[in-house]
Amino acid sequence: MSLQSRSWYAVHVKTNFEKVAATILEGKSLEVYLPAYQKPRRWSDRIKDIECPLFPGYVFCRFDVNNRLPVLSTTGVLSIVGAGRVPASISDEELSAVRMIVESGLAATPWPFLRVGQRVVIRKGPLSGMEGILLAQRNKYRIVVSISLLQRSIAAEIDTDLVCATQPRFVRQAQAASIV
């Protein structure tokens, strides 16, 4: 079995079928990851926190790419994200960064996908060593981590004392080209 055949893939599911699809896929002995966050929901008589997926419409699943029928035949599954009919795997670093944020206990929320911005690395704390994009919003700072394939991101509030700036990748590549 090749290395890519056991990579993580994004599985596109019907709206509000994330938990159902994840449960069925786990029942098929597949490794599944459904990152979630708490969102306040208002009813007429109360406000209650409900669990919502960080990436609505998607479940992450590790499976043999050459045996994807069990995934595609799952209730609620629409497709496996990829180029044409070829599934595209998700970088382990991107999914690990999402896991770190979810498991850190920090407040995380879905965030619009960003291609450019100031990249930072967290120096200490529960997210130590993780890189992301630093944003400021209403006098609070957030680090944004993205899943490039889905063009979706999540954000977590951070203390700016914990981060230091890194050089943008495109600058490093340009500098490397000018040295040659």
**End-to-end distance:** 40 Å
**SSE succession:** EHEEEEHEEEEHEEEEEEH
Q: What class would the helix/strand composition place it in?
A: alpha+beta
Strand content: 35-45%
Describe the sheet with the most strands. Answer: 6 strands, antiparallel
The unreliable regions are 170-180
Count up the domains. 2
CATH-assigned homologous superfamily of the largest domain: NusG, N-terminal domain
Account of the protein in words:
The chain has 180 residues and is an alpha+beta fold. The chain has two domains: 4-90, NusG, N-terminal domain (Alpha-Beta Plaits, 2-Layer Sandwich); 92-171, SH3 type barrels (Roll), CATH 2.30.30. It is built from four helices and 15 strands. The protein has helices at residues 18-27, 69-72, 92-104, 169-179; strands spanning 8-13, 31-33, 36-42, 47-53, 58-62, 77-80, 82-83, 86-87, 89-90, 108-111, 119-122, 131-137, 140-147, 152-158, 163-165. The strands form four sheets. It has a six-stranded antiparallel β-sheet. A hairpin with a 2-residue loop joins strand 7 and strand 8.
Q: How would the blueprint of this fold be written?
A:
Layout: E1 8-13, H1 18-27, E2 31-33, E3 36-42, E4 47-53, E5 58-62, H2 69-72, E6 77-80, E7 82-83, E8 86-87, E9 89-90, H3 92-104, E10 108-111, E11 119-122, E12 131-137, E13 140-147, E14 152-158, E15 163-165, H4 169-179
Antiparallel strand pairs: 1-5, 1-6, 1-9, 2-5, 3-4, 7-8, 10-14, 11-12, 11-15, 12-13, 13-14
